[in-house]
UniProtKB/TrEMBL annotation:
UniProt feature coiled coil, ranges: none
UniProt KW keywords: Hydrolase
Xref: PROSITE patterns: HOTDOG_ACOT
This protein's record includes keyword Repeat: no
Superkingdom in the source lineage: Bacteria
InterPro entries from the UniProt entry: Cytosol_ACT, HOTDOG_ACOT, HotDog_dom_sf, Thioestr_dom
Similarity section: Belongs to the acyl coenzyme A hydrolase family.
Name the UniProt record assigns to this protein: Acyl-CoA thioesterase
Chain ranges of the HotDog ACOT-type domain: 1-96
GO biological process: acyl-CoA metabolic process; fatty acid catabolic process
Organism expressing this protein natively: Hankyongella ginsenosidimutans
Any one Gene Ontology molecular-function term assigned to this protein's record: long-chain fatty acyl-CoA hydrolase activity
SUPFAM superfamilies on file: Thioesterase/thiol ester dehydrase-isomerase
Length: 105
């Protein structure tokens, strides 16, 4: 509305990136069960080049905790900055739709 990207859209992109990282580590389907510590640090402006990075922080028996960071490169500059951070928690899902153990590696 003010030339900023809607936070809900950013949250969606972060969930997708975290889900990919969790699914690769879990070697199969996962589902988001929580979002912890979401921080919108700076606005994302129209024309910013957006990058979303996801790293596995912790692996439990059936759950995975994923750190997500969103960076932008402002249009017209080479300046990169962190704009959003969050922690997403996933559970590995079995064929029966219930939690399943995450493989040890």
């Amino acid at each position: 509305m003010n030339g900023h990207i809607f936070g809900g859209w950013i949250l969606s992109q972060m969930d997708i990136a975290a889900g990919i990282a969790a699914g690769v580590r879990a070697k199969g389907p996962v589902a988001t069960i929580a979002i912890d510590g979401m921080k919108f640090l700076r606005p994302i402006l129209l024309g910013d080049l957006l990058s979303v990075y996801a790293d596995v922080r912790r692996v439990g028996n059936t759950s995975l905790t994923i750190d997500v960071e969103v960076m932008v490169q402002r249009r017209g500059t080479m300046e990169e900055m962190v704009v959003t951070q969050g922690v997403f928690v996933f559970v590995a899902i079995g064929e029966d739709g219930r939690p399943r153990p995450v493989p040890k590696e």
